[in-house]
Write a structure and sequence with these properties.
By secondary structure, the protein is α/β, with parallel strands linked by helices. It contains nine helices and eleven strands. It has one domain: 3-Layer(aba) Sandwich (Rossmann fold). Strands 3-2-1-4-5-11-10 form a seven-stranded mixed sheet, sandwiched between helices. A two-stranded antiparallel sheet has the order 6-7. The chain has a two-stranded antiparallel ribbon with strand order 8-9. α5 packs parallel to α7. The structure holds S-adenosylmethionine.
Length: 246
Amino acid sequence: MQQNIYDNDTFFENFRGLRSDEINFNEVIESPIITAMLPDLKGRKILDIGCGMGQHAMQYSKAGAASVLGIDISEKMLAFAKENNSADNIAYRRLAFEDLEKIDERFDLITSSLAFDYSEDFGKLMKEIYALLDDGGYLVFSTSHPISTAYDGVYDRYTRTEDGVRLYANLHNYGIEGERHFKWVVEDYEVYHRMISTLINCIAGAGFVIEECRESKVPDDILAKYPDRFGGVVHQPDFIFFRCRK
Ligand SMILES: C[S@@+](CC[C@H](N)C(=O)[O-])C[C@H]1O[C@@H](n2cnc3c(N)ncnc32)[C@H](O)[C@@H]1O
């Protein structure tokens, strides 16, 4: 089911607060890894899917992209992006990734950061992205790791010592795919859980070659400085990343 939680006032305000915090999962973990996996951006025609507040679009623009089209379902996210992350070579458009067939351009790089968690039909999404790429083009994306989405919110994510120290990450129904609901920013946050093999088979089934896969890891200095904040990531990678080639 298509959802647009980022236009919910409470969710948007809370997410904006989290995202603008200097030490947040996006800046400290997601962004450095996806950046390291990107091809040279100079002269590229880029589509950023689920562009949110436009931080990545601005990064790609500054790195020399010929053009960046950022699409997102949320009006509030796009309004923030237009106000704070605009440049001559960036365009923003309100469009859901379920409607990619409405795009009549082709790209040589398609990126997406943490938006595919909300895709019900990941196989269809991969096929539609493949069709939007030039031959030899890249898809580089991150999504929540299947180990992280194998969770249902009714128990602690971790088995802990009596003092609360995280000993193990818990998995719930890893093999049962589909909608998952838990508390994150709002009481009822919804994502889709998929097994790792499903991610890989949907990517390959669309025709892509997977060139690289990474799992999130917190830099040692950040972990030492903020053990409470990022300590769980040692047990459980929050994000998974793929670089795929057409
Ligand atoms: C976690 S945010 C990430 C935003 C941005 N990529 C970043 O790295 O900061 C997820 C984004 O996906 C967008 N999104 C969710 N469902 C979508 C859909 N069906 N089509 C397009 N965008 C969607 C949300 O509105 C939100 O902006």
